[in-house]
Amino acid sequence: MKTLSLYVLIAFSLPAFAQTPSQASPEQAQKAMLQQAQFMSAMFDLRKSRLGFEETISAIKAGAEKRGWKVGPVQDMQVQLREAGVKDAKRMKVVHLCPAGANEKIAKAGAGKTPPLPCRATVFDGKDGQLYVTRMNLTNLAKTLPGDLAKAMAEVGAEEEALYKNILE
């Protein structure tokens, strides 16, 4: 009887081990990629600059300083990409800046459970030859958050929009 039970157990267990995990169909993979692209376009603000490359960086820094923001270094990513072996790296600089008190405001509204803001903008030459600035879209992000946190994020987003108003299209 024990032997029969063992054979029955093995017989019913083998199909479970033989099954392979299902893979997404091409349609499912395409749908997932589209959803990811939509999420990325909602989370990031990508717009053309009205100014030249260095003028855009200078205008962002000057506008931030005028508003009392914390302005950090400008990181030249083109140099770093070339050092990493990317031969055709286009101009790209990351400006580190953050509205004064923004992270504290967000942390307080999120009861200390909210990660710090990325606080940077990337200025770069696009493949189409146009100059772009990309950054987190805090206004859209605020729409996904609850209560006081949404209000605080929307306030910081409005401060950012004011900074970029005359720089971006």
State the CATH superfamily name: TT1751-like domain
How many distinct domains? 1
Query: What is the count of DSSP helices, taking H or I runs of 4+ residues?
Result: 7
Helical residue percent band: 40-55%
Query: What is the CATH level 1 assignment?
Result: Alpha Beta
Low-confidence stretches: 1-12
State the order of secondary-structure elements, H for helix, E for strand. Answer: HHEHEHEHEEHH
Strand order of the largest sheet: 1-5-4-3-2
3D architecture notes:
The chain is an alpha+beta fold and 169 residues long. It has helices at residues 2-18, 26-43, 53-66, 77-83, 102-109, 138-142, 147-164, and strands at residues 44-48, 70-76, 92-98, 120-125, 131-136. The chain has a single domain, classed as TATA-Binding Protein (2-Layer Sandwich). It contains seven helices and five strands, in the order ααβαβαβαββαα. The protein has a five-stranded antiparallel sheet.
Describe the protein's topology.
Elements: H1 2-18, H2 26-43, E1 44-48, H3 53-66, E2 70-76, H4 77-83, E3 92-98, H5 102-109, E4 120-125, E5 131-136, H6 138-142, H7 147-164
Antiparallel strand pairs: 1-5, 2-3, 3-4, 4-5
Helix pairs in contact: 5-7
Observed structural traits:
169 residues; alpha+beta; TATA-Binding Protein; five-stranded antiparallel beta sheet; 5 strands; 51% helix; globular; disordered N terminus
Short structural summary:
This protein has 169 residues and is of the alpha+beta class. Helices cover 51% and strands 18% of the residues. It has seven helices and five strands.
